[in-house]
Amino acid sequence: MASVRCVGGIIHDAAGRLLVIQRGHDPGRGRWSLPGGRVEPDETDAQAVVREMREETGLDVRPGPLAGMVVRGRYEIYDYVCEVRGGRLRAGDDAADARWVDAAAFGTLELTDGLAATLRGWDRLPRC
């Protein structure tokens, strides 16, 4: 089975909180993760990040450097550090909820498999 290229966005607010979404569909329905999704044909990673962030969170972002890549089943997920340029946070599209979380709140969430360890390895956990 062919792999599926996906992207995700990593955003911290000025207070150091991390943006997470609650997945509205499988895989991982009900669990918390980074916003993101599949890269469409003829779409660059940067274009996919901008589109997915707008669809899932209502935020307009500028993708920055690649934080890292993980493989989850057939999904190759490339996560980019992003900067918010506008919009208003709201859950949309495949997200059941979207919120900024500090370290204490992050520790209470039911996360997608491997998310906390991956973000820890990339030094991208909530900073407050």
Structure description:
The chain has 128 residues and is α+β, with helices and mostly antiparallel strands. The chain has one domain: Nucleoside Triphosphate Pyrophosphohydrolase, CATH 3.90.79.10. The chain contains three helices and seven strands. It is globular. Belongs to the Nudix hydrolase family. InterPro entries: Nudix_hydrolase, NUDIX_hydrolase-like_dom_sf, NUDIX_hydrolase_CS, NUDIX_hydrolase_dom. Residues 2-125 form the Nudix hydrolase domain.
Question: What's the structural blueprint in terms of helices and strands?
Answer:
Layout: E1 4-10, E2 18-23, E3 32-33, E4 36-38, H1 45-57, E5 59-72, E6 75-87, E7 95-101, H2 103-106, H3 115-121
Parallel strand pairs: 1-6
Antiparallel strand pairs: 1-4, 2-3, 2-7, 5-6
What is the count of β-strands? Answer: 7
Give a short account of the largest sheet: 4 strands, mixed
CATH superfamily name? Nucleoside Triphosphate Pyrophosphohydrolase
CATH topology: Nucleoside Triphosphate Pyrophosphohydrolase
Which class do the helix and strand fractions yield? alpha+beta
Strand content: 35-45%
Structural domains: how many: 1
- CATH architecture, by name, is Alpha-Beta Complex
Task: State the end-to-end CA separation.
Answer: 41 Å
What is the strand arrangement across the widest sheet?
4-1-6-5
Let me know the average pLDDT: 96
Looking at the structure, what is the overall shape?
globular
Assign the CATH class: Alpha Beta
Radius of gyration, CA atoms, in whole angstroms: 13 Å
Helix content: 10-25%
- The SSE order reads EEEEHEEEHH
Q: Uncertain spans, ≥5 residues at pLDDT below 50?
A: none
Total helical elements: 3
